[in-house]
Every structure is written in structure tokens, then in C-alpha cells.
Write a structure and sequence with these properties.
- It catalyses: O-phospho-L-seryl-[protein] + H2O = L-seryl-[protein] + phosphate; O-phospho-L-threonyl-[protein] + H2O = L-threonyl-[protein] + phosphate.
- Keywords: Hydrolase, Protein phosphatase.
- This protein is of the alpha/beta class.
- It folds into two domains: 5-147, Protein-Tyrosine Phosphatase, Chain A (Alpha-Beta Complex); 156-196, no CATH class.
- It is built from seven helices and seven strands; from the N terminus they run ββααββαβααααββ.
- Strand 1 (5-8) and strand 2 (11-15) form a beta hairpin.
- Helix 3 crosses helix 4 and helix 4 (94-106) crosses helix 5 (111-121).
């Protein structure tokens, strides 16, 4: 069955056959295709931009070096009102890994949370062992960067980082507010950008 599986409102994951189906691409208003493979074809449509990440589904393959670039390109495409599909041969390992990296960087999800989102969108999604290890490393790197922000200009990445900080605060607040929306006896104060309970 040909299908583009929706991860977010502007991001899809699929296999190569579906990603090269012009009817599907038009239906979902896809404007960018990220082809995470060495040999799979790219869509023939002139309406769609393409990016190839040349990688095999091999645990020793380096996808980590592509995480930031792909995540930022997906975010930029969304900011322009576009939509992206990330695909590999079977829509299982390589494409899932890139989608997870995007969710970790720009949707501020943990590795486990991002994996669950992608898995819910496409049940066969399953990064291989090597890619999973690279995602674990990436998660640690992102946590380090968020603890010591380096960007001072209001770039798209900066706005994304601020959104991540806001979401982290909201998660803490959600943990403090009970199901009846009454605050427990805990005070929150923010000092120097660090949240202290």
C-alpha cells in the first residue's frame, strides 16, 4: 500500500515507492523529499526539492553527521510553509532515524518520546542498533547544548531552542499540577535561566 505516514503536520515518513508517487506528494502538499539512501530514486517532479543523504542501512554507517543539517532543513521548510517527507528503501531504519533526530532537536522530545511518535506514525519504524547508539549520543549532545546556549541571534534555531526551554518548563509545571489543576505545595522560581524547585 502506498502511503505517506504523518509524523507531524509538516513531516512525513515513507518508503521509496510511496515517496516517489507524484499523486501522493501532491495530495499531502509535500515540497521537500529527503532521500536517506545510496540507490533509491528521487521524485521526478520539478515542484519538489530533494536532498540525498547517501547512506546504507548498516549499523556502522555514519548518520550522526547528518542529524543537524537534516533537522534544520526540515524546520526551515516548515517555516516557509512547506512539508517534508523523509524516506529510505523500506521506510524503516534510516528514515526513522532522521525523523527521530528532528523531533529531538526541534520538538524537544527525548529519544524515547521521539521514537514513540515515529513508531505511532509508522509501525515498522525501527532504527538499527548502530543508528540507535548514534541517536543516544545525539541526545546527550543536545542536552549539553541546551544547558549552555551558544546562539544569541534570533535565528530559526534560536527560536527552536527557546521553544524547547518553554516546553521543559511546561513539563515541570504539568508534574506539579494535579489532575484537578490545583497546585501542590511547591514553589517554582527561575534564576539565571535555571529552574529550581
Amino acid at each position: 500500500m502506498l502511503q505517506l505516514c504523518k509524523v507531524t503536520h509538516s513531516l512525513f515518513i515513507s518508503n521509496a515507492r510511496s515517496a516517489c508517487n507524484d499523486e501522493l506528494l501532491q495530495k499531502e502538499a509535500v515540497t521537500l523529499c529527503i532521500n536517506v539512501s545510496q540507490q533509491q530514486p528521487c521524485p521526478a517532479s520539478d515542484r519538489i526539492s530533494t536532498l540525498r543523504v547517501p547512506a546504507y542501512d548498516d549499523p556502522n554507517e555514519d548518520l550522526h553527521s547528518h542529524f543537524d543539517r537534516c533537522a534544520d532543513i526540515i524546520l526551515d521548510e516548515e517555516a516557509r510553509g512547506g512539508r517534508t517527507v523523509v524516506y529510505c528503501k523500506n521506510g524503516r531504519s534510516r528514515s526513522a532515524t532522521i525523523c527521530i533526530a528532528y523531533l529531538m532537536k526541534h520538538q524537544c522530545l527525548s529519544l524515547t518520546e521521539a521514537y514513540e511518535v515515529v513508531k505511532s506514525a509508522r509501525s515498522v519504524a525501527e532504527p538499527n542498533q548502530g543508528f540507535w547508539a548514534q541517536l543516544e549520543r545525539y541526545e546527550q549532545e543536545l542536552q549539553g547544548k541546551r544547558a549552555t546556549p551558544e546562539h544569541k541571534s534570533f535565528s530559526t534555531a534560536t527560536i527552536s531552542a527557546k521553544t524547547c526551554a518553554t516546553k521543559e518548563i511546561q513539563r515541570i509545571i504539568n508534574g506539579i499540577i494535579g489532575p484537578d489543576h490545583k497546585f501542590l505545595y511547591t514553589k517554582i522560581s527561575v534564576f539565571g535561566g535555571k529552574l529550581r524547585l
